[in-house]
Amino acid sequence: MTRPFIKRFIRPKESKTNADRIVGFRAVVLEEIDNLHGTGSIEVDGKIWTARSVMDNDILPAGSEVLVERIEGVKAMVRKYKL
User: What's the 3-state SS for the chain?
Assistant: First the structure.
């Protein structure tokens, strides 16, 4: 009887996953991002992620800055960072 009552009030706090934490971060392209060839990686917050451009025809060269828009599976979807 008390268990359902207590269970309603005690809920684990939601914590963001590692993937959720990088959305909105700026990142540096390590390997050229080219959706047609299926290549690309970025470094963000000290970790390396496989990346793809949100724009299919964009090629983002190594060394450029990008913004992480979202995560799809295990890939970071990025767009060119503009000041």
Answer: CHHHHHHHHCCCCCCCCHHHHHCCCEEEEEEEEECCCCEEEEEECCEEEEEEECCCCCEECCCCEEEEEEEECCEEEEEECCC
